[in-house]
């Protein structure tokens, strides 16, 4: 499996344990720690995720402990996250065209969080 979608991180963790997989989120947050922290805290503030960083430390994807908005995650094998095909897929999924499609097709029942 090169990529898949998971609705929330606890299910991904359970899937990895049950199947011996090592899939990781290909999250639409910046890869540098400072901007990743800012993005995760913003998503937390919007109520899209629950992310509790440690006091005095930058938040990371590992600090996301709930996904009440049931945001979808693109996941990939840890060694494939930087593969060009996965990066192209992630870019397409986070594009303005995809946002416009979601807005039009789902008329507010699904909200693009990117």
TrEMBL record:
Family label: Belongs to the NlpA lipoprotein family.
Entry-linked SUPFAM superfamilies: Periplasmic binding protein-like II
Signal peptide segment: none
Originating species: Mycolicibacterium fluoranthenivorans
Annotated compartments: Membrane
UniProt keyword annotation of Flavoprotein present: no
Record membrane topology: Lipid-anchor
Main localization, broad class: membrane
Protein name: D-methionine transport system substrate-binding protein
GO cellular component: membrane
Record key words, sorted: Lipoprotein, Membrane, Palmitate, Signal
